Structure formats: C-alpha cells, structure tokens
Amino acid sequence: MKIIRIYTTIFAFFALLTLSAQNNITIDAVLDTEKKVLSISQEITYTNASKDTLNKVLFHDWANSFSSKTTALGKRFSEDFLKRFYFAKDHERGRTLIQNITDKNSQSLKWGRYQGASDILWIQSSTPIYPGKTQTFVLKYQVKIASSKFTRYGYEPNGNFNLKYWYIIPAVYDTQWNVYSHKNLDDLYAPISDYNIKVKVPHGYQIVSDLKKETILSSKENKDKTIELQGSNRSEVNLYIERTGKFYSFPADDIEFISNIEDNDLMPEMKSVATERIISFLQTKLGPYPFDKILVSESDYKNNPVYGLNQLPDILRPFPDGFQYEIKQLKAITEKYLENTLIINPRNDAWIRDAIHIYLMMSYTEQFYPEMKIIGKLSKVIGIRWFHAADLKFNDQYFLAYKNMARLFLDQPLSTPKDQLVKFNQNIANAYKAGVGFKYLQDYLGDDNIVDESIKEFYSQNVLQFTSSQKYKEILKSLSNKDVAWFFEDYIQTNEKIDFKIKSIKKRKDSIEVTIKNKRNNAMPISVVGLRKKDIVSKTWVTNITGTKTVKIANDDLTKVVLDYEQKIPEVNRRNNHRNLKWIFNKPFQFRLLDDIEDSRYNQIFIIPEFEFNVYDGFTLAGKFYNKTFIRRDFEYNISPAYGLKSKKLLGSAAFFLRDQIAEHGLYQMRYGINGSMFSYAPDLLFRRLSTSANFYFRPKDLRSNVKQRLSLRNVNVFRERDEENPVETPDYNVFNARYRYSDFNLINFLGYTLDYQISKNFSKLSATFNYRKLFLNNRQLNLRLFAGTFLFNDTEKDGDFFSFALDRPTDYLFDFNYLGRSEDTGFVSQQIIIAEGGFKSQLDYPFANQWMTTFNANTNIWNWIYAYGDVGIVKNKGISPKYVFDAGVRLSLVADYFELFFPVVSNKGWEIAQPDYDQQIRFIITLSPETLIGLFTREWY
Fold first, then answer.
1. Among the listed residues 499, 359, 489, the one whose alpha carbon sits nearest the alpha carbon of residue 414
2. Model confidence over 109-132: pLDDT tens digits?
3. Predicted model pTM
4. Helix (H, G, I), strand (E, B), or coil: what is residue 393?
5. CA atoms of 58 and 179, how far apart (whole Å)
6. What is the number of other CB atoms lying within 10 angstroms of the CB of residue 61?
7. How far apart are CA 506 and CA 360, in angstroms?
8. Can you tell me where the transmembrane regions are (predicted)?
C-alpha cells in the first residue's frame, strides 16, 4: 500500500504542475475567545488560470452571511421555517468587518459587495491579470464568529470553536465567475491553494486540523500561543479550536485519522479496526488518499447523517454499537474523502459526487454487512418480524427515501442546482436516487466491475483537479458494452418516473410473448425475469420501450414472469410487475396488522384499531381496513366500522380516493374521492354524510415555493335522525360547494385567502376569508384576518340559524370540523372554537347572521407566546338593523393554530373579566389529529 501511495503522490505532483490555478494563501489570525472575534491579516496570491485577462477578482466572504436576517442565508433559514436565526440575539450572529485591502505594494484597492450580496466581494486589481500571471491581495479584517446553533459551525456554549468558512477565499473562474451565497448547504466551490496559517489562541486552547502543525510559539507571559499550520493542494481549511478536547486519533491504513464522532463507548481497538477497514475499502475502490491526515467531525456528520432508525436515542436504536459507529464513520469519511480530492462545483453538479458517495456506502454494506436489515435487531422480534419491513435490507432505505418523494410528486432532476431543491431532496432523496442509479446501471450492464472501474478511473484521472460529471460520462461510455445514454438523458436530467407493467402474456409451445407497457415518457430499460417457482430461469433486458413492446422468452416450464424481480430498478410502482402463469390471481391477498412497507408481491390489506371521542358516542372503537402504506399511493381506500361505547351504536366511515398527476407545475394534480360517515350529532341521534369531490391542485415551477392553490368541487349529502321532542324542519339536505384556496406560507410572511360558494335547495351563500401574518425584523408578529359573507338567497327561517353565518362557533352543517361536542351550548366542550367564519372569541348576543356578516380579527404578540387580540364586525339579520360587535382579550399561543387558549377581557357585554362565571367564557383550540400535528414538523422538509 505504501508503494501505491508513493506512485500516486508522484502522479498527483506532476498533475498539479500542469495546473495554473494554484494559489497561495497566508493567514495571521488572533482569536479573542471572550468577544468571539478573529482578527485576520491575510495575503492571497491569486493565479489567473483562464485564457481571459482579469481586472477584478471575486471572493467568497461567507462569514458575513450571518450579519443580518435579510442575507441569502437568513432568507434560507426563514424559507425552511428555522426560527432560531430570526429570533437570535445580535451578538449570536456573525459578520466580517473589512478594515483595508491593498496590493503587495500597500496601494489601496477598490472593493465592494458583488451585486448586493453580503457574502461575495469584488476587488479591483491594481494592474490587469493576464493569463498565467499572478496578483497579490493583502486584506486586513475582523470576523465576528456566529453561534454554532445555526449551522453547527461557530462558537459553542462550552467555549470551543468549530470554524468553517471563517476566512475570505477566491472564487473559481472558468470563462465566468462561479460565485454564490452561503445557504447552509455546505457547498463552497473554491480553487486549490497552498496554505500557511498562524493562529494565536489563549494558552488553554488547542487547534485540531488536517494540516501539518509545524511550530508552537508561546508568549513570555504564557497567556497565549501561536500555532502554525501548513497544507498544500487544499480547497478549504476547517479549524477546531478547543478548550475541552473531544477529538481522538489513530493510524488507519497509513493515514492519520482524526475524529470526534460519538463512539457509543466502543473500545479504541474496535474503533481502529472499523476505521481502518473503511479507509482501506475507499482506497481500493477509489485510489490512494493524497494527504496524510483525514479529519471528520461530529458537526460534519450531523449536517449530513445517515437518516433512519440509527438517529433514535441510544436506548432505542436497533443496531449493534459497532455497526452504529461504523456506518456513521463510513458516511462522514467517504464524504470528506471525495470532498477533499474531487474538485467539482457542489452547487450545480453535485449529483456525481453524491452518486459515488452513496454507491460506495451501499457496496460497503453489501460486502461487510450483507444480512443487516433496515430495522436492525428488531427484525428478529416476535410480532415485528412478521412485517415486510423486517425483510428489507439496510440498503433498501435509499430507494424508499427517493420513492417517497416520487409518490408525493416532489422529486426533482438530479441536475437541479442544490439551492433549488426541496430540503428533503437536498439532504436525502437526490443523493439516494443518484446512488441507487449506479446500482441500476450495474444491473443493466451485467458486469459488476464496469461501474466500479468507471468510478476508479474517474477518480484517478481527476484527483485534485477541477472536474465535472461530463468527464465521468465520457469514461463510462468508453467502458460500457451497452448504450448508457438513457442514464444521463432520462435518469439524471429529468424527474421522469420509472413505471412499467406487464400488459399481456401469450403462451406458445416453446416460448412466451410478453407485452410490456411503459407508462412514462422515457427510454429507460427494464429486465424481464422468468421464474420456475422461486428459481430464476431467464433474465432479459428490454430497451427503448415507447408505449408497448413485445419480447419473446423461452418457456422452460415457467410459473411466473416478473419485471425487475431482483428489485434493482427504482421503479415507483412495482405492483403491476407480476404475472402468474399457473394461477388465476397474479398475487395472493395478504392481511397485515398495522402499517407496513409496501410489498409488491401481494395485494395487501392493512388493519389497525382506531379510537375516537365525542360526547355523544363516547369513545368509539374502530377497525380500520385500508391499503395506504408508509409511502403514499395513487389509489387509497379505508373502511372503518366502529362501535360507540356510550351510544352503543354501530358507526363508522369509508373513503376512496384516486390521484392523477398530469403535469409538473401549473395544474399538476387532480384528486377524486367519495366518502361517507355515520356518527352521533346529538344524544341518541345519528347523522349520515355522503360526499363526492374533485380537487384540482396548482403549484409553481419552483418547488421550494410555498405557494399552493386548490380548487375543490364537492357535493355533500347529510341525513339526520329526527328528534321527536325537538324536531328540526330540514333533517336531510344536500349542498353543492365550490371552494378556491390560495396560500403562501412562510416564516416571515403568510398570505392566504379562500373564496367559497354554496348552493342548496333553500339557500345560496358566498363568502371570502383573507389571512395575513407578518413577522417584523424586531420580532413583533402581526396577524390579520378578514371575513365577509352574504346570502344570495335564504329561505331557511324554519331551521333557525342552522345554516346562518356564525360569529364565534359555526354550526358546521357540512360536518367539516372536529368538534368534541358539536351540538353543545353549555359545558366545557362548548368552549371549543375553530377559527372560521366570524372568528370571534366572545359569545355575544348576536352570534349568527342570516343575511350578511363582515368581521375583522387581529392579534399581536406582547411577549413570546402571549398575544393581545381584538375583533370587530357587523352582523346583519333579516328585519333587524346591522349590529356592531367587538371583543378583545389575551391569547396564549402554546402551539400556533393547534393548541391555544383565549381569555376575553372586554366586549359588547362589557368588562367580561369581572363578570360571574368567567371560567365559562374562556375558549380553546385543540387539534388531536396526528396527521395535522405531524405537518408542523415536516413542513421544513417538503
């Protein structure tokens, strides 16, 4: 291995001699640990490696990204609903204060912020920089280090400093400047440079890095020391300045390995064995690492972890400690190995490095942990081991993560710039799809070595050089014995899903004709496998399927024909891939208790017990029969027969929905449904509700945008049992409802409005609701809501106010809301409100309007989650003059829109807080729906 390293070092050296892009950076820095400030004197010798003459040079100053809430980084945090930066104290943020910029002759140079970006600099050169020539820039500046709570890099509460993007660095020029702002994507694109760094720190601190530590100079007073670091051919330098040391190191395959990743109390010998195995594996698969140290930190890993069950608390994790540690180090070391040696634009060409990264992780697991399951040791637990999830291998998680986004219609092409990706794609799905794509290629090419050879050749030819995915494409095409154009044109460049089905089969004497339908518009190949029971008899690859294509395979007493039997292809729907030749049903039925992962070999029906509550039925016990798995399906149904323990009645619901994606943006999806339910609406009185609906969904081309539009058309039929003692005139009714909703939900601004039209036999009404929420730079929040509704005609006087607009508590005649007790006028459950229609909190003398109503609701925070609210409105009933109404009070927003309390203070009724039975005037919002609450935590990912 040492001989190989020597030859590789010599090769890298001569390769670097051909690079005219080499720069030299010298930094003298002094760290003030109390003020969290770095005072930096920096000299940058910049070499013009292009064919153009340059008069300006651009630099990345990403430390200044933390300077305000309105930088690109601040806006990115807001888009991802990360409040900690927006609400941070000013001293927790970071910034760069530039004192002066000169050339090597001390001549001042003009400089400024490039196109208004806070973290990109331009500096005017004192003389033109001709191709192959150099220019020296001398900078003096201070960096206020930001808190690590924003990106995991910065100053930590324990006094340590994790420094990333802490100095000014030249940008890459290749016919144009490759500059872009810091957006918390860990994707700085910087040229190769030689570094000489001196850092003065207090005596109690030490510096950890992967550079050579040359000298340590202590001051006479022994209060501080200067540490000198040197490194060649580096794209960037990270420093870890520690008072409480957590890093450990040991030799691994002739490389010094340095890390502070948690080790689950493993013995040092086990850590050493695992790490040496990882580095040896990478050097075999890629080529020798050109540096003598490799450093991976806990911050690096946590910013890009192995998502899954391994992120559970230690006591719940189902994986052995050795595997847990090894898989974390595998992820972090592989990423750092590629990041330090393959100089690829990580924002615009990230997929190739991601593909190699995940492919190597999958190959490592296959080689050393071939039997490891996706749920680890839980796969052997009685009860759990019956689930299909217990059958899945650890590597299956990569396909499932991508499939989740494809089924949600949120997948994006692998060529999409990183800052345009939905967060789940950016962190997880796109990298996983890229890695799974290499496995797809491997299966298609039929030679396990071709993909491995292409990766190794790509690495060896491009180590420590600027490169791109185009060069990998050229290498793969030269090694492949089949056409691979489809991989780059369809799989990489588009988000076109893979979905084939067996349309028909015809048996001949000695052959079988299989007609395959490609349900998508692409040229991706599919394998056809002939089975005799469970044995693979034949495997045929079919390419260029446009519409349908028929192929012949030998009929060697086959029992089944299956597309992609080994499941190596990331197909979004495998349920139509099976054709049974010996039985009437293609797949047997399978009943499963609780949710499970979809198993395409069976027609699955899931059963789960459900519990609900209302004051009339009490607790209802239901058995829910459904087909929805953890990953959404286009057609879903659930049938839930139930029994009310209090009402002692048979109850329940059923729903059937079909989704149809018709485009990528604009009108992109339609959803059709029919659902019915039967529950109690009053003591000993049942209602039956049947609704048919069609929903049309709209979205912009930018999937990161939170703009959503939906047009809903539905017909609602309600049948209510009559109460002989208190009969209602219209127990049964039918309402057609057309509703348009627009929303643009962001952390700083929220705008939404709804237009609603309803028509029934006895009434027709039109209403509009507008919502606006603004978070100001001083952290003050203002919430505004306007409602206006009018009857176009209304002949419902005989029904009282059942169909009227409500000021504070709608009657909910369409049964849309989850009231704990919808018919209650007194008692605790009657104090539940849902902010709809009038949106008032006080119960006033004119709670309904049978002609028209207009209300305005506002609230603003007094301190943290304590708000002051106020409502005003006009209520108009037939034959009565309009009534002005108002109320005001205090709102406790414990979880906004999900769990809140309202304390009325003053209203038309007077000073409410001083009136008797005040506790009965307190109102509350509560949401018990798990899906609704889960949305709070998933909104930043989707």
1. 489
2. 999 999 999 999 999 999 999 999
3. 0.89
4. strand
5. 8
6. 25
7. 41
8. none
